[in-house]
Design brief:
The chain starts with 11 loop residues before the first helix and ends in a 5-residue tail after the last helix. Helices cover 49% and strands 9% of the residues. The longest helix has 26 residues. The chain is an alpha+beta fold. Strand 5 and strand 6 form a beta hairpin. Helix 3 packs antiparallel against helix 4, helix 8 packs antiparallel against helix 9 and helix 11 packs antiparallel against helix 12. The chain has four domains: 127 residues, no CATH class; 110 residues, no CATH class; 44 residues; 56 residues, no CATH class. The strands form two sheets. A four-stranded antiparallel β-sheet has the order 3-1-2-4, covered by helices on one side. Strands 5-6 form a two-stranded antiparallel sheet.
Length: 378
């Protein structure tokens, strides 16, 4: 049963909620998952997720475990199911000390043994087996016994020899080594190293890359992961129903969580459509009139005049009519006609020139002829 502190008096709303939850049927089973979180800026710890079947990857994101897999699972005993029946939020525990974790799990293992003899003991033995693998608390900082030196593998030795000879080898020698490796052991680490050395031959000194073993190993892992992902997607596309069985023939340890990750496609942000800037006079005027209408601060007469101007401009633009500009200088009026696509700033500069002091039609006509006869797009 759920434990209520002695002497605690529930309010009416708490009592009503308790009675409502207590009347609901209990779950028949549940699962507890155990996750290990290595040290970051916080100490390493083990998370114990109650009712693990209810947790989703996104719920474990705050702990940084949204892509992790549990290292151990066990069924919930009836006492736990009863206790957590009243939860209104997801529940988990975290431990930074193995002794505290084992003490708590010992109690639950005893309850499991009562319900199903041997189940709790088996689980506890499995949990103890992870104590050496996952260090918690002060055990993380204890100096382990020195490991015996391992013999250098043939691949590592060959890698080191190639690293020493890299700068002195010619492109022909590198190609020969690559062909021999492909026909022989075909080791991905060596092939990627030789490929990088061959690439360096066509680069300048400041752009050359001389990779180490860790860099090449990371490239190999990325390549293998990419190969697996492409294979999984092709297989799933051909036969979604039996894709898992076909994939496991090639990758025996493959599971459903890995399948979901491999099939997930990153959402691509849609490119914004590019719009050419509006520069011609009539369309610029139409934009300004539209903005004036959208402002809404117009009376009936102004609204009518604005709409009439827009209709006239739009019709003239659709029919590609020339743009007439009437200029009066020294009591003499002339009309200058411009092309329908002339830019607004050019018309403004022409009007500014016409309004300048001492301007005559003769001088203005020269500028007009220059604009009309020029190959430059005014």
């Amino acid at each position: 049963m759920v434990k209520i502190k002695e002497g605690y008096v529930m309010t009416a709303s708490e009592k009503a909620e308790y009675d409502r939850m207590n009347a609901l049927p209990r779950k028949t089973s549940g699962r507890v998952d155990y996750y290990f979180k290595p040290q970051t800026k916080y100490p390493p710890r083990i998370y114990v997720f109650m009712d693990a079947e209810l947790w989703r990857d996104r719920n474990r994101r705050p702990m940084g475990l949204h892509t992790a897999f549990p290292f151990l699972s066990r069924p919930m005993n009836q006492e736990e199911i009863e206790y957590h029946h009243f939860n209104w939020r997801l529940c988990y525990h975290q431990y930074e000390d193995w002794d505290k974790l084992l003490y708590a799990e010992q109690q639950e293992a005893d309850e499991l043994d009562k319900e199903n003899p041997g189940t709790g003991t088996t689980f506890l033995n499995k949990l103890l087996g992870f104590r050496q693998r996952y260090s918690l608390g002060s055990a993380c900082f204890s100096q382990s016994a020195p490991k015996p030196e391992l013999c250098e593998s043939a691949e590592s030795k060959y890698f080191r020899e190639l690293s020493l000879l890299a700068k002195s080898m010619t492109a022909k020698e590198i190609v020969g080594l690559m062909e021999a490796e492909q026909k022989g052991l075909n080791r991905p680490v060596i092939l990627l190293l030789l490929r990088q050395y061959l690439k360096n031959k066509s680069l300048s000194e400041d752009k050359k890359v001389w990779p180490d073993k860790a860099y090449i190993q990371r490239k190999v892992e990325q390549s293998q992961m990419r190969t697996r992902r492409n294979f999984v997607r092709r297989t799933y596309h051909k036969n979604p129903l039996f894709a898992m069985q076909e994939i496991q023939l090639r990758y025996p340890d493959y599971n459903e969580a890995m399948l979901l990750n491999d099939l997930a496609v990153k959402s691509r942000t849609e490119k914004r459509k590019k719009h050419k800037p509006i520069t011609d006079l009539r369309r610029c005027q139409l934009e300004k009139l539209s903005a004036r209408l959208r402002s809404g601060a117009l009376d009936e007469q102004e609204y009518h005049q604005t709409c009439c101007k827009m209709v006239m401009l739009q019709n003239a633009h659709d029919h590609r009519l020339p743009i007439p500009l009437t200029v009066t200088l020294n009591k003499q009026t002339l009309v200058y006609s411009f092309g329908w696509r002339i830019r607004e700033n050019e018309v403004k500069s022409f009007v500014g020139l016409a309004n300048s002091k001492g301007m005559t039609h003769e001088e203005l006509g020269k500028k007009y002829q220059e604009m009309v006869s020029s190959n430059y797009s005014y």
